Structure formats: structure tokens, C-alpha cells
Amino acid sequence: MSAAEQNPLLEGLRLRRRPDPCILVIFGASGDLTSKKLMPALYALAVRDLLPEKFGVVGAARTQETNDDFRARMKEAVQQHARDPFDEETWSKLATGMRYVTLDFADDKGEDELKDVLTSLDEEQGTSGNRVYYFAVPPSAIGTLVDEIAQRRNAEGWIRLVIEKPFGHDLASAKALTAEIKQHFAEDEVFRIDHYLGKETVQNMLALRFANGIFEPIWNRQFIDHVQITVAESIGIENRAGYYEQAGAIRDIFQNHLLQLVAITAMEPPIDFSADSVRNEKVKVLKAIHTPGPKHLVRGQYGPGFVEGEQVRGYREEEGVAPGSMTETFVAAKLYVDNWRWADTPFYVRMGKRLARRETTIAIQFKRAPHPPFEDGAAEGLRPNVLLIHVQPNEGVSLAIGAKVPGQGMTIRTVHMDFLYGGTFREGLPDAYERLILDAMLGDQTLFTRSDEIEEQWALVDAIIGLWQRDRPSFPNYAAGTWGPAASDELVHRDGRSWRRH
Ligand code: BG6
């Protein structure tokens, strides 16, 4: 009996088809992403019996490691980071098909060894030449690797390239990378990851909008006053100064996760749920986003402060960060989606590191009731209706409505109708990477970013960065543990609105 058959909690997960036999090759296997996310995700899929019956994993990186070292390191990673209790039998089954190859991405020496390892693993595991190549490496390493893979391509079996963000560092480099890949591979073989699309709560936004008849008629400028999207993190840059100094919040979060949340919130109903239908609608939103003027953009950088009761240093004092760094760790913007549905409806967005707490929310704020017929003062405690999508943590959806306070007379107050995942569904939420790795194996591109989407995202970011060249803000301008610079509040206050209360 399979794990899913033994465990009724896993009911429903069996509905999806099982992926073809294949080998997952991870480039960048010594990095944090592999141990914290990819391997725990594979283990979670193994526990739920969702991996292909015939399966192998090959780690490839510069670090010298034997197969056994790699397996031992991955086992520890799973024990530390997986969401399920460790089960030796499930692990051994997964570990049997695990290999490691030392590979310097700059030359092609390790490539032949990789090819040999893959061929023998095909024979041992019956994986039929099918490959998922996962690039957890900087964009500069991808072109050469893709060339090498294409040169050694088997006559049989499919190939899928899963590419982690960042996909390029601006529009020109993203286009160049796509062109390089397209010399050998078709767009339907390329899976650009934005892990936010793998989050249950982000997909639930699609369910909420398109599986319920009541929202669609009011999901527009006539009923919605504005939208607020917050991607707040309490963590700092965690030993990633080398990357973050180059990226900043605009490339790290705004270019990808944030714009995808805007696109999912604002898109038109797709005609079906095929990858192209969904992505066609998202790309229309991205095209319709107007470049904000300088007054509608705020950047910030954290100084020292207290986060969740702990004293933390400022960004410029982080290891590896230049003492006079001008990299932004916070961005807020007022965006407009210029189409019939959204014209004149602001999308206020903000994202940052070392904010007061970790919280990703999408708040749809509706217009006030046109004429509340109550006595003066009765509705003083009443705020406009807000549909709040808690992407994380405390995943769920909540609707703020006005209700009568019990007792004599008529006093109205805001109350919340809540749906909490934790209280409704018994099975814990899967990590985004579980969904995305499985979808890549199944060849389903719906939750991956297409080249034209990435290009629209970069075009907007390039325009914003261009505006920023003109002045030098005085950094740091917010204390760690707060909600960002004062200018972020002013951005919203100027319009007579305020950020949602925390
Ligand atoms: C990554 C960014 O893409 O997303 C990180 O590079 C950030 O800087 C992370 O911390 C946030 O992801 P999550 O799933 O924790 O919201």
C-alpha cells in the first residue's frame, strides 16, 4: 500500500497524475537553497508518494564531496528542515538514487562525468533519459551549463530546465539569457521559478476570485477604493551580502514576488487554467502598470534597532556590506494598472527587510457604504470593508464587515469573518517548492514565469532604477524593527489613506 493509501490525511493528493520516471539534477547543490528548501521538499513529496516511481537525484557543485558525504549532508538537512517527522525507510529509498558530481561551472570537465553518472543512474533506476535540471546558481553560470547540457542531450527522454531567480539583473541581461537558452531549448522546456506562485495562499487568490461568483462583479474600480500589498520580513540579509548588495529590495522582491502578487490580484479571468491562458492574463497586467513617478516611490535602508525584542545591527554594519552602501532594503510604491478594470485605483505596495514582523498580505479595501443611515456617532468605529488575504504567516482570508454591537441602540463596529487554513484543513500546508518541483516534473508551466512576463517585470524595474540614479537619499532612514521610513507613511497619507493597522 502506498503512503497516500495508508494515510487518510493524504486523501486528495492522489488525484494528480504521477510524473514520468526522471532524474533531478541540482546545480548549486552545496548552497542553502538545496538544504533548506529543495531537499526537504523532495522528502515531503516522497512521504506523500508523489515522486516518480523511478527516480534519481544528482547534486552538482564546486565543492568536493563523495556520494556518501552528499547523502549524509542531505539527510541532516531533511532532519533539520523537513515538515514531516523523519522516517528512515522513506529516506533510504530516496537516498538510493542519490549521487554527487563535483563540477566547476566555468569549465566542461565535470560535465562528462555528470553525463556518465546520469547514464548509469538511468540503467540502475530505470529513469529513461528524462531530466529536470534545476539551476540554483547565479545567472552568469546558466548560459554555459545550458550549452553543455544541449551538447550532451540524449536522443531519448525529455528535458526541463528549472531556473531560480534572479533571471538576469536587468531587461537586457534577461533577454540575453532567454536568447541563449532558446538556441537549444523551447519555451515549453523552461521553468522560471518565482516561489511565491507555489504558495498555497497565492493560488487560493485564484480560487477565491474565480471559484466564487460573489467577488467578480465587485472586483474593480467601482467598488474597490485601493489595494495594499505588504511583503514584510523581520530577517535581515542573512550572510547573503554578496548577492543582496547587487540586488537590493527592488530586484530581490519587487521585480518578482511583489509584481506577481499584483498580477494575480489584478488579472482578468483566464479562459481556462492552462499555462498560457493564465500567463497571458498576467502579462497584460504587467504591461498595463504605469511607471510610477519619483513622488510615488520610496526607498529605505535599515539602521540599527530592535526586532522582536532583539538588538540588531544596521544594514551597513552587516558582514560583507560596504560601509557607505546605497543599496535599498525597503521599497514602497504607488502603482497604477492602466486598464478599464483598475484605472485610478492605486495599488500601494511595500516590502522590506528588518521590518517589525514577517507578514505578507494583500488587502483589498472597498469603498465606503454610500449613505449609512445611522445617527451621528453610531458608526464611528466602522472602517470600510476590507478583504484581507494573509499569504503568510497565519495563512487565511478575512473579511472586515460592520456589525451591530449587541445591546440597546445602534452602535456599529468592524468585525472579522475569518477563514484560517490551520482551523479548516487538517493536512499542514505544503511548502511552495513541493508544488513547483512536482509541477516541473509533470511539465505543468502554469505556476512558472514566461519570458515575456519576466521582461515586463524588468522593464518596470529598469525604469524605476533609472529614476533613482538622479538623487542620493540619506541612508539609513529607518530603524530595524519599524515599518520603514516615514516617507512610506507619507506616500499613503498624502492621498488621505493609511497603511493597514498592524
Ligand atoms: C527570496 C528572497 O526570493 O524570498 C529572500 O531572495 C527572501 O531575500 C525570500 O527572504 C522570502 O521568501 P518567503 O517564502 O520566506 O516569503
Write the layout of secondary structure elements.
Elements: H1 3-6, E1 22-27, H2 32-47, E2 55-61, H3 67-81, H4 88-96, E3 98-102, H5 109-125, E4 131-135, H6 142-151, E5 159-163, H7 171-182, E6 190-192, H8 200-210, E7 224-232, H9 241-266, H10 275-288, E8 297-300, E9 302-303, E10 305-307, E11 310-312, E12 330-336, E13 346-352, E14 359-366, E15 386-392, E16 396-404, E17 412-420, H11 421-424, H12 432-442, H13 451-468, E18 478-479, H14 486-493
Parallel strand pairs: 1-2, 1-4, 2-3, 4-5, 5-6, 7-13, 9-18
Antiparallel strand pairs: 7-14, 8-12, 10-11, 12-13, 14-15, 15-16, 16-17
The protein binds 6-O-phosphono-beta-D-glucopyranose.
Explain this structure to me?
- With 502 residues, the protein is an alpha/beta fold.
- It is built from 14 helices and 18 strands.
- It has helices at residues 3-6, 32-47, 67-81, 88-96, 109-125, 142-151, 171-182, 200-210, 241-266, 275-288, 421-424, 432-442, 451-468, 486-493, and strands at residues 22-27, 55-61, 98-102, 131-135, 159-163, 190-192, 224-232, 297-300, 302-303, 305-307, 310-312, 330-336, 346-352, 359-366, 386-392, 396-404, 412-420, 478-479.
- Helix 2 crosses helix 3 and helix 9 (241-266) packs across helix 13 (451-468).
- The longest helix is centred in the middle third of the chain and has 26 residues, at 241-266.
- The protein starts with a helix and ends in a 9-residue tail after the last helix.
- The model is unreliable at 1-15 (pLDDT under 50).
- 6-O-phosphono-beta-D-glucopyranose (BG6) is lined by residues 165, 233, 252.
- 6-O-phosphono-beta-D-glucopyranose is lined by residues 165, 233, 252.
